[in-house]
Design brief:
This protein is α/β, with parallel strands linked by helices. The chain contains 11 helices and 12 strands. Strands 2-1-3-12-11-4-5-10-8-9 form a 10-stranded mixed sheet, sandwiched between helices. A two-stranded antiparallel ribbon has the order 6-7. The structure holds glycylglycylglycine (GGG). Glycylglycylglycine binds next to α4. This is Isopropylmalate dehydrogenase-like domain-containing protein. One of its GO terms (biological process) is tricarboxylic acid cycle.
Length: 355
């Protein structure tokens, strides 16, 4: 599924590196895009601020200016990673969660694919996690009260028919465009029969919607409880093609699936809405290695490729993906997460040489 390609003189790309290794890997995606030359409209980059580090210095995690520029001036964006603390910090709220909502980027599309030994061969793992991106427990309505037996914390989990329908439609469209055309709906409706029950029923009902008109007839549909889905993902990942899940399950499943392909440092994503797309590596800000120039740049470069593909620039996207696959397949210049000794910049140079 791609946004309709419109004739553009230039491609305005907002860059939001945010925290930690985001600051090291987003510049590599920028360099890779710049190397594409005339395969894409001339890229123009706009540096934008957000993140916990920005909050710590300035008291704001997501400046209005960042959101306004994204909405009014950019064609697309690349986001790095954010380090929200695990404790409540007064006045702070996750900028990536807010950004996805404010730009209505309702689908987080996370392909997890291994690189086959030889070009043209089928990869062992080739699946896409389609994660609902705007609701579930991420509506962040939590409260704490002192009850009869001490502290009681509650959170609201929101699942709506509208959000489940549109993520379901997106997942069917992605499945329809893939060779296997197989969609698995992930839920836990044996326990959460109201919330997950609504998600499951709504997604399963997508092919019967009046405006679908048989478009998804070729897609086979299965469903799986989230716990057994994790088990089967590790035992037999080949059974999965496209997996669609509510926000929290999708977040966890896609990080878990990354273990199957060697490193979180390889897994890209896009946050997609009907009018905007934002690439984002699945990995976080990795404070343990931030500042050492050893972060893996490949997830960010692949996220740039996904973003360009979504915008309809498949030639440029193919060149980035092919270059990344070659570097992984050759296995000589890799960062430490993949067992190598190379620096971020050395891996980038290998990619640029092949673009
Ligand atoms: N690029 C993905 C990323 O930054 N992951 C870390 C994450 O999900 N953080 C949520 C947050 O800190 O708000």
């Amino acid at each position: 599924r791609t946004m309709a390609t419109i004739a553009r003189q230039s491609l305005k790309i907002g860059l939001i590196p945010a925290d930690g290794i985001g600051k090291e890997v987003i510049p590599t995606a920028k360099a890779a895009i710049e190397a594409l030359g005339s395969d894409i409209p001339k890229p123009e980059f706009i540096d934008l601020l957000a993140g916990f580090e920005h909050f710590a210095k300035n008291g704001i995690a997501l400046p209005d200016e960042t959101v306004n520029i994204l909405k009014n001036e950019c064609d697309c964006a690349l986001f790095g990673s954010v380090s929200s603390p695990s404790r409540k910090v007064v006045g702070y709220s996750s900028p990536i969660v807010a950004l996805r909502k404010q730009l209505d980027l309702y689908a987080n599309i996370r392909p997890v694919t291994s690189v086959a030994a030889n070009p043209g061969e089928k990869p062992n793992v080739d699946l896409v996690v389609v994660r609902e991106n705007t609701e579930c427990l991420y509506v962040k309505q939590e409260n704490l009260i002192i009850g009869e037996h001490g502290k009681e914390a509650r959170a609201t989990r929101l699942i709506t028919e509208r959000a489940s329908r549109r993520i379901g439609q997106m997942a069917f469209e992605i499945a329809q465009a893939r060779p296997r055309k197989h969609l698995t709906v992930i839920h836990k409706s044996n326990v959460l029969s109201v919330t997950d029950g609504l998600f499951r029923e709504t997604v399963r009902g997508v092919p019967s919607l009046p405006d679908v008109g048989g478009r998804f007839d070729g897609v086979t549909i299965a469903e799986q409880l989230v716990d057994s889905a994790v088990y089967r993902l590790f035992r037999e990942p080949q059974i999965y093609d496209v997996m669609v899940a509510p926000n929290l399950y999708g977040d966890i499943l896609s990080d878990a699936a990354a273990a199957l392909v060697g490193s979180l440092g390889l897994v890209p994503s896009i946050n997609a809405g009907d009018n905007f797309v934002m690439g984002e590596p699945v990995h976080g800000s990795a404070p343990d290695i931030a500042g050492q120039s050893i972060a893996n740049p490949l997830a960010s470069i692949r996220s740039a490729a996904l973003m360009l593909r979504h915008l309809g620039y498949s030639k440029g996207a193919d060149r980035l993906d092919k270059a990344v696959d070659e570097v992984i397949r050759e296995g000589k210049v890799l960062t430490p997460d993949l067992g190598g000794k190379a620096k971020t910049g050395e891996v980038l140079d290998e990619v640029l040489r092949r673009i």
